[in-house]
Amino acid sequence: MNSPDQRNVMLVLGDAHADDPDNRRGLFAAYRAADADVALQLGDLLYYDLPIPTYFIAGNNEDFDVIDALRNGRVDSERVTNATLLAGSTADVEGVTVGGLSGNYAPTQYERPRPNLLGERRRHFVSDDVEQAKQLGDVDVLLLHEAPHGLPVTEDYEVGCNHIDELVDELDPDLCLVGHHHEHAEGTRGDTRLVSLAPAWESYYTLDPDTLELTRHETPSA
């Protein structure tokens, strides 16, 4: 791993699980080490009072009351600072169009209307979410918590969701970043570079907004 280049780079973070104090210290160590002005995060954040503007997707482990409030633009809480949710939406981040789909896949929930998802079932994306995301247009970087096929991560099941394949094929981003698996792995789908990110307490990444070059760094001890 290289030392970070302090040019105009974005911080990129995998799963944080920052409700755990040790993981939270690792998360903030990554923020300090990168010394960036803006960050992207791949879900399972679980702590939303952040030091710099952070564009994130919801994972399958979140405070879903906070996520619902962010989805509906009605958060007014001291517990939420600098956290912008991407849920079938895009943001212009340092001149890069970043899109995101929040949640993970559950076949039993996929065809249900989102308002019918209650409790922990709010962790999933549904068909309407994917169809909304397909309309995002030109996206440079796509953030996902559920992987498309093509990432060689180590799991005891086949990794890859057909609905996510369709989304990636439709949007054709230059770079697709995936959380959830707590493992660094790289692959391709068509012309899209796929990268599964290591968790934030192990590694952080920097992204050059001009070239979309992604560089991995070791998260320093908190």
Overview of the structural elements:
This protein has a single domain (10-218), classed as 4-Layer Sandwich (Purple Acid Phosphatase, chain A, domain 2), CATH 3.60.21.10. It contains four helices and twelve strands. The protein has helices spanning 21-34, 64-71, 127-134, 162-171, and strands spanning 10-13, 39-41, 49-56, 81-85, 89-93, 96-101, 141-144, 175-178, 185-189, 192-196, 203-207, 214-218. The strands form two sheets. Strands 4-3-2-1-11-12 form a six-stranded mixed beta sheet. Helix 3 packs parallel to helix 4. The radius of gyration is 16 Å and the shape is globular.
Please give the number of β-strands: 12
Whole-number count of domains: 1
Percent of residues in beta strands? 25-35%
What is the overall number of helices?
4
The appropriate CATH architecture is: 4-Layer Sandwich
Distance between the termini: 18 Å
Structural category: alpha/beta
Query: Can you tell me the CATH class?
Result: Alpha Beta
Morphology:
globular
Spatial sequence of strands, sheet with the most strands = 4-3-2-1-11-12
Task: Give a brief outline of the structure.
The protein is of the alpha/beta class.
Key terms for this structure?
single chain; 222 residues; alpha/beta; Purple Acid Phosphatase, chain A, domain 2; six-stranded mixed sheet; 4 helices; disordered N terminus
